[in-house]
Amino acid sequence: MKNLAMIACVSRDGGLGKDNDLLWRFPEDQKFFRETTMGATIVMGSKTFDSIGRALPGRENIVLSREEITADGIKVFHDRADLDAYLELLPGQKFIIGGASLYKMYLPEAEVMYLTEMDAKKPADVFFPEFDHIKYSTTILQTGDTNGVNYRMIKYTRKEV
Ligand SMILES: NC(=O)c1ccc[n+]([C@@H]2O[C@H](COP(=O)([O-])OP(=O)(O)OC[C@H]3O[C@@H](n4cnc5c(N)ncnc54)[C@H](OP(=O)(O)O)[C@@H]3O)[C@@H](O)[C@H]2O)c1
Q1: Is the dihedral of CA 108, 118, 36, 59 positive or negative?
Q2: Which structural domain, as residue segments, surrounds residue 46?
Q3: Number of folded domains in the chain?
Q4: Residues with CB under 6 A from ligand 1
Q5: Fewer C-beta neighbours within 10 Å, C or N terminus of the chain?
Q6: pLDDT tens digit string along 52-84?
Q7: What is the CATH number of the domain that holds 75?
Q8: Average of per-residue pLDDT values in the chain
């Protein structure tokens, strides 16, 4: 899908979260997430919305759920086909921001993936889907370390077929 990206922070084994919470939380990644998604549309599953607890300011917040959810500042879709039809018509940049179920669902659709890759593991119960690295070109956007753990922020761009 045009202008569709995913953004996530993953452990060395692809771990994304545990007990409906993030594994990694540090200022550089939060800043990167904020700056990358600001002004765009962000799309998340209901569990990720629950874990964030509110709409994120300065972005159009979309939540996918089969349930009725009411909260300030969010648009809810109950069905992927309806959501896709809406996203297709949306001119600006769109980001899948999690969780595991949405990353898996949209992996084949996303043109770009921004992954903050942590050089360490933590126990996790949800994982980023495996993907074929050969299908993407890679740009390292930032490197650093947080609490002694190295990280790299990588932009994966799907190669033209
Ligand atoms: N590391 C990161 O960058 C990152 C980012 C985001 C989230 N996370 C982590 O990921 C975990 C959550 O991921 P998750 O996979 O468990 O949950 P999720 O993807 O956030 O949400 C799953 C929910 O989305 C709804 N949904 C999914 N597919 C649907 C469909 N086809 N139609 C309608 N509704 C659909 C359902 O909501 P209902 O049950 O309401 O119907 C489903 O229960 C947490 O641990 C979170 O901290 C990590």
Answers
A1: positive
A2: 4-158
A3: 1
A4: 8-9, 16-17, 20-22, 44-48, 51, 64-67, 78-80, 97-102, 126
A5: C
A6: 999 999 999 999 999 999 999 999 999 999 999
A7: 3.40.430.10
A8: 97
